Here is the input.
Amino acid sequence: HLPAWGPCTYGAGGGCASVSPNERGSRGWLHVLTVRATDGDAGANADLLYRLLNAGGPNEVFEIDPRSGVIRTRGPVDREAVEAYELLVEAADQGQEPGPRSATATVRIAVEDDNDNAPQFSEKRYVARVPEDVAPNSAVLRVTATDRDKGSNALVHYSIVSGNSRGHFYIDAQTGALDVVSPLDYEDTAQRPPGLCHRPRLGAQWPGLLHLPRRR
Ligand SMILES: [Ca+2]
Ligand SMILES: [Ca+2]
Ligand SMILES: [Ca+2]
Here is the structure.
């Protein structure tokens, strides 16, 4: 008999098994899944050993136990570097006559996203210059930050975290557009530049700077 892949998943066409180790949980030795094949013969003719046929390159992060069929990670995975893997697994019996027989299956592994990246602003520092008599609701500048994660882990919301105690400035949480919303006063040195922040969880702060030329 040829070894036959067990129910599910490993699939008639050799397809299957989408498992999802997430980034943070996979510092190493994470059990991803167990593949299992059966063999209708007896003795060595049914003694199955598993191996990865494409263990090189990015797939090096996975290994398979030849006896148990347990596939696990050997080190961290990073979704931002490699989002999905396709392993080619072979199950081979140890028959001698006429020789070992084998079957292969494909295991697809998708890596779930962890929120392991903070948003990054497009600039280290934004500088704007507005006249003291700027009309309320004038646009000052627009900041943008991007996040390498995925889905809600990559959503960026902007807010002003300091320097806006008088409420002169407003930032649109979605677009990052910063407006002056009430009259400014050059002599009021308490008007420090607003520090902007983006959320969620992995926030980072940005030291903004706002020049305020004196009204003539
Ligand atoms: Ca990552
Ligand atoms: Ca991530
Ligand atoms: Ca993030």
The chain is about 0% helix and 35% strand. The pocket of calcium ion (ligand 3) is lined by residues 115, 117, 147, 149, 153-154, 202 (CB under 6 Å). The domain at 120-210 is CATH 2.60.40.60 (Immunoglobulin-like).
